[in-house]
Amino acid sequence: IAQLAARDAAGLYRLKVDLEQCQVSWNGGFQARFEIDPFSRTCLLEGLDEIGTTLKHEAEIAAYEQKRRNFSSLQ
């Protein structure tokens, strides 16, 4: 890690992390794949946290809550 940091500081290579392809590479020809859980990957790609992910389903949640209120008022 220290060598990588020193090379980076010297501008000897450019590191690229491709989250879409789950791959890291640099201009020296190195290329490696990495694993990340699908939820975390999606959150990072879409710029969302857990709340933001939930809010993507806001319309469905509101519809469910409305049905639940209607059902409760019938009883």
Strand content: 5-15%
Distance between the termini: 65 Å
Q: Provide a count of the helices.
A: 4
Number of strands: 3
What is the average of the pLDDT values?
87
Low-confidence stretches: none
Helix coverage percent of residues?
40-55%
Structural class: alpha+beta
Strand order of the largest sheet: 1-2-3
- The radius of gyration is 22 Å
Give the biggest sheet: 3 strands, antiparallel
Shape: rod-shaped
SSE order: HEEEHHH
Q: Could you write a compact summary of the structure shown?
A:
With 75 residues, the protein is an alpha+beta fold. It has four helices and three strands.
What does this structure look like?
- The protein is an alpha+beta fold and 75 residues long.
- 53% of the residues lie in helices and 15% in strands.
- The chain has four helices and three strands.
- The chain has helices at 2-9, 38-46, 50-55, 58-74, and strands spanning 15-18, 23-26, 31-33.
- A three-stranded antiparallel sheet has the order 1-2-3, with no helix packed on it.
- A hairpin with a 4-residue loop joins strand 1 (15-18) and strand 2 (23-26).
- The radius of gyration is 22 Å and the shape is rod-shaped.
Compile the SSE list and pairings.
Elements: H1 2-9, E1 15-18, E2 23-26, E3 31-33, H2 38-46, H3 50-55, H4 58-74
Antiparallel strand pairs: 1-2, 2-3
Feature tags:
4 helices; alpha+beta; 3 strands; three-stranded antiparallel sheet; single chain; 75 residues
